[in-house]
Amino acid sequence: MILFATNNFTFIMKQATNPLYLEHTISICPKCIKRVPAKIVQDGESIYLIKYCKDHGEQKELFEEDARYYFKKKLYDKPGTDCKRQTEFNQGCPFDCGLCPDHEQHTCIGLIEVTEQCNLRCPSCYASSGEGKHLSLEKIEEMMDFYIDSEYEQAEILQISGGEPTIHPQILDILKLAKNKDFKYVMLNTNGLRLSEDLEFADAIAHIFQGTGFEIYLQFDGLEQNTYQTLRGSDLRLVKQKAIDNLISRDIPITLVSTILKGVNDHEVGAIVDFGLKTKGIRGLNMQPLAFFGRLDDHIDTTDRITLSGILKRIEEQTNGKILFDDFVPLPCNVDRVAITYLTNRRGKWMPLARGKDLQSLVPRIKNTFAFSLDDAMEEDGSCCGTTCKCFGPKKLADVLGGIAKSASDKKRSEYLNKDLFRISVTSFIDVYNFDMKSMKKECVHIITEDLRKIPFSSYNMFHRPGIS
Question: What are the chain's domains?
Answer without folding.
Answer: 1-75 (no CATH), 109-427 (3.20.20.70)
